[in-house]
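Hi C.,

You asked whether I'd gotten around to modeling the 222-residue construct. I have! Everything is below, sequence then structure, no commentary in between.
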Amino acid sequence: MNTPSTAVPVRIDFVSDVVCPWCAIGLASLEQAIARVGDDVAVELHVQPFELNPDMPPEGEPIDEHLGRKYGLSPVQLQQNRERLRERGADVGVDFAMGARTRTYNTFDAHRLLHWAAEMDKQVPLKHALLRAYFTDGENVSDHATLVRLAAQVGLPADRAAAILASNAYADEVRADEQMFLRAGISSVPAIILDREYLISGGQPVEVFEQALRQIAGKRRG
């Protein structure tokens, strides 16, 4: 579909991890805001890597144990947080099947596939597939067979995905991107950067993203 000539081009860098629940909420909210703005803007969306737990072993660890140790949360607090996430997710169409998600995993290989998927114009569909696999289906998003299957589901060649995962392909590129955003002061996600200038942090409501997009469009038009 051709972009209307009146649309204002806006680059968005969505810095996030695939095991970050607020990132799932933030992406859904952002995409709904983009839909609301419609032809006023022409968004170029780039998914950027961030690892919440870069030292996580491939096999992962139980999520309650991990969150309790990392954030000092009690079982009651963990349950309260889950209910809050479930409600916020439902508001924007994200299905957090909390019973299915029992472990957290290393996500570096998932980020390597996402980097490659950008070259194939499949990055956003793969991001959605990864988020759904983890948060709704409780799958291991560090498992290579799972990653290859998800890549194939969104139209990426499975044999190439398997070859990438079996090698160190895109490892340097992902690490360089991660370091760039860390140096820029990004320490929590999601971090949504508009036109490499304006930062919105967190899984904000749809209205926050919509307002930001309309303000940029208005400013550009003078």
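If it helps when you're writing up: The beta strands are 8-16, 41-49, 61-62, 103-104, 191-194, 198-201.

Thanks,
B.
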